[in-house]
Please model this.
Amino acid sequence: MNEQQGPSANGVRSNPISLNIEFSGGLEILFSNQRDHRIQLPAKDSSGEPANIMFLVHYLCENLMKDRRKDLFLLHGGIRPGILVLINDADWELEGEEEYLVQDGDIILFVSTLHGG
Amino acid sequence: MSPPLHIPASKLCESCRATRALISRPKTNQKLCKTCFLSTFEAEVHATIVSTTLFTRGSRVAIGASGGKDSTVLASVLKTLNERYDYGVEFVLLSIDEGIKGYRDDSLETVKRNAVQYGMELVIVSYEELYGWSMDSVVESIGKKGNCTYCGVFRRQALDRGAERLGINHVVTGHNADDIAETVLMNLLRGDLPRLHRCTSIITSSTSSPIARSKPLKYAYEKEIVLYALHKKLDYFSTECIYSPEAFRGSARTLIKALEKVRPSAILDIVRSGEAFSRMIPSQAQASSAKLSQESGMSNCTRCGYLTSQELCKACTLLDCLNKNRPKMAVEVEAGIEDEEASSSLRRGMEAMKLAEEGIVN
Ligand SMILES: [Zn+2]
Ligand SMILES: [Zn+2]
Model:
């Protein structure tokens, strides 16, 4: 789409990013009842921007989530309130939330706070 | 202590300034490392317990344990605090087996492991043994709609009866700040002052029960409870009850979570507002008017002996309905009437009984 690419980006295809994705607190039900997933995420989104958490969650929603109830994970275009995101054990609020640029080898945990007491 | 060189100052714990911050506290926006977070969380629960003189040395207290995150964190924290501050309290785990296959079986296994992990006695009381009905058989009879009413009434009595069996008169539950904020909102939207009053108090002793209930986690955010469980690697069970939750509560919950996202202090603010409103409610309105006229007339249920303002207690009234319905259902099923219709006609009958009159605070 973007014809005005700089010389450095031109012709260079970045390798996909390896990520460890974990679901907990009941969210695993939405992802084939499996807690741990290893995925290869494209390094750039469709407009050529480096992959961030926002791109990741949409990618997960489209490619990993078999359950049809998408709004239990994504709501109004963002992570459903009440789902905590931990990036390498740290609260995503400390890492820039949706804007955080994912790095090779990151462990990203999604945990629902909404289920049962 | 000088900060380690590889962590930028902006990423350090705001309390010890020695390690990387992992938690952003919704209450205060404070950024804490794992160790400081765990100890702050525990210190706040301890402060709640001390400021309300919740426990008496030498007493036995039952922890209503479901195997879920809240009661698991409650049991873990109470064990830690009991040892650290020498409360001198004996805690016992009390679990209810509602008889829901594939949900309760698994969570009871979690509670059994917790009993071993925390060195606490575990007592399990089942709906089946108390009422002759498991929730699976209730749902089979009335359908999925309205079954939460049964479950709520049955659970309240079951916890009381379990505690009574143990000779215990105090049950603590894992209700957190989010739960209370949610209930405050629901009671405001319904204009229910008596329940608004009850849901905000840390300890409630109802006229229909000799057993006191309290909520030591009432100021603890759900987010922090989950983070506490995660960082302490606690063993908890997380699957929603397979029977549908109340729609109204679900909407209140979604609203609370959306508010928290925009303004994290909102949850505690709603709890505090609820407490402030509660103090302004005249004492006559704190009990429901229906109950007031009969306040002196509390007596024992003529069938089971449970304290009640009516001839029959709520559980026995519901059981009557279920038992009457049993043979009728069989006939209707034979006649080919759909489950859903049979249950909705029963539901209308139940609503007419004004079940909500007496507090079904869960
Ligand atoms: Zn610290
Ligand atoms: Zn009775």
